[in-house]
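Human: For the file, kindly provide a plain-text protein record giving the amino acid sequence and the backbone structure tokens, at your earliest convenience.
Assistant:
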Amino acid sequence: MSRTPLFKVYGHIHPVDVALYAGLERICSSALPDTEDIPVLEKDGDMARISFEGTYFPDAEALDFLSARLGPLHQGKLDILDMDGWRMTRHVFRDGSIQSRTVPLNHVLAHSGL
């Protein structure tokens, strides 16, 4: 019997160095994905990609870690879909800061054409 994951988290950040990636790797290791087959964190050149579906993702810890380390060249985003609360929070990384916005998932679906 399958079920809908409580959280879906997708994002990326670049450029990442060894220390930034290692910190994200440590944080993502406490995530509780629905399947172990898909890595939560992957490196693609100088970009770190997060792809997660499951019951727990340490989003507050990840955002605290990133906010202390973001420089003016870092760019990216982290989308957190709360399936139980039916909302999405997008965290955008730009100019050394994080800007966040939360919208209902119905709003996201309307703008995606679904």
